[in-house]
Amino acid sequence: MLQQLLHGLLAAVAYGVIGVAMMALGYVLVDLATPGRLRDLIWVQRNPNAALLLVSGLLGVGVILTTAIAASSDDLVAGLIGTLAYGVLGLILMSLSFLLIDLITPGKLGEELATPNLHPATWVSAGAHLVIAVIIAAAIW
């Protein structure tokens, strides 16, 4: 029983490290997509667009990682590799969706997200992030 507990704790720490790394990478990607520093946009300027885009990315990563962990086998190493791979795939696809939305819509999406008033384009991009996460989660199962 103690050995199971230790194995579970080790797995939780390992998956947690991957989760934190994926969230940090997601933060960096959103920071690259928006003009200015994301930390200033959200915490200083209280920009709702930047916050909504970041939250949708974090929730999307959480959905993907949680599904990958739940679907992983008892093989911790294989589970960690799968979780990392699905997390990176999710971030790549979310970034591509942002670029595609920017390409097919008027204006520059990153600049719109840096405006102080909540912009409808933010909801579109946030929705795309969550849809991609759910699609990946369904593919994992």
Folded structure, characterized:
The chain is mainly α and 141 residues long. It has one domain. It has helices spanning 2-33, 38-44, 48-71, 76-104, 109-113, 120-140. The radius of gyration is 17 Å and the shape is elongated.
If you average the pLDDT, what whole number results? Answer: 93
Number of helices: 6
Global structural class: mainly alpha
**Strand percent estimate:** under 5%
Short overview:
The chain has 141 residues and is an all-alpha fold.
Supply the key terms.
single chain, 141 residues, mainly alpha, 6 helices, 84% helix
Secondary structure topology:
Layout: H1 2-33, H2 38-44, H3 48-71, H4 76-104, H5 109-113, H6 120-140
Helix pairs in contact: 1-3, 1-4, 3-4, 3-6, 4-6
